[in-house]
Amino acid sequence: MMLDSLQQSAPLAVTAAAVLGLLVGSFLNVVIHRVPRMLEREWAQQAAEVRGEHAPAEERYDLIVPRSHCPSCGHRIGALENIPLLSWLRQRGKCTACGASIPARYPIVELATGALSAIAVWRFGATAEGLGAVVLTCFLIALAFIDLDTQLLPDNMTLPLLWLGLLFNLSGAFAPLPAAVIGAMAGYLSLWSIYWLFKLATGKEGMGYGDFKLLAALGAWFGWTALPAVILLASVVGAAVGIVLIVAARHGREVPIPFGPYLAGAGLLALYFRGPLANLFGVG
After folding, report:
1. 56, CA 20 to 30 Å: which among 77, 86, 279, 280?
2. Which residue numbers in the chain have pLDDT < 70?
């Protein structure tokens, strides 16, 4: 009944997607903050096991426990303080207990998720394609910000994203399944080849394996024909930003710049313009 209403009323579907996107964006902030810390704990436990040591017992820490709290004073965030976007505005970007600043990135993630979810449903409707576009958008937002913070693209996010792309393309939602399978392989192998050519030529690592897996995931969603445009867009924007950082912000040449956010941005462009982009490269 609800699905029928959403399919029959585009404004209702877009509004529902925006509201749901705001709520999911609030959860994505938790994902962005906690997933890298969860991985660090896991790696520390594995390292202790390799050394034959007993890892110290730690309190539960995952996406559910502990409850969200202020990192400055430990104040637990109540329901009225956790309303996406509105709570941050009402509190003027500060903790209600200690007055510490709450980074503007939190409402930015919520707003971006809500807006892009609404755009996805407006473009694809309340359909399987619309659901897939929203799912892809949420993954890309989370991965982009995690990479910005930590220069990590976790396997427990990039690999499920790849399989989800193939799942949606069982019915050809975004690309024919054969093109999606080839896209996943070509996406990984293309950056893997560049990585090794650069390493053999310079002795340095130009990117991480997470970048290979993210591009493989994008290939699984859009097919191999979208990959040249995705790689070019991500590389051009990444190079431009890198030059600006080096020149204007005195960003050291030896300081690595995460490539994941540019791949994620190129992926979002491919979501809406993959046809024109593929035709531009003569592979449509």
Report:
1. 77
2. 1-8, 55, 242-256, 275, 277-284
- Structure tokens, 171: 């019915």
Does the predicted TM-score (pTM) go above 0.85? yes
Contact predicate 208/153, CB 8 Å: yes
Collapse the DSSP code of 72 into the 3-class scheme (helix H, G, I; strand E, B; otherwise coil) and give the result.
Answer: coil
Tokens representing 209? Answer: 């394996």
Q: Which of 73, 61, 102 is nearest to 85 (CA)?
A: 102
Q: How far is CA 105 from CA 26, 28, 43, 85, 188, in A?
A: 11, 11, 27, 11, 30
Contact 281, 228 (CB under 8 A): yes
Distance, in Å, from the CA atom of 258 to the CA atom of 242, rounded to the nearest integer, reads 10
Q: What is the pLDDT of residues 194-211, one digit of tens each?
A: 888 888 888 777 778 899
Contacts of 258 (CB under 8 A, 6+ apart): 147, 148, 151
Distances (CA, A) of 226 to 107, 156, 185, 249: 31, 24, 13, 33
Question: For residue 253, how far is the Cα from the chain centroid?
Answer: 26
- Torsion region of 219: left, alpha or beta (phi above 0 gives left; psi -120 to 50 gives alpha): alpha
The residue assigned the tokens 């002795």 is 203
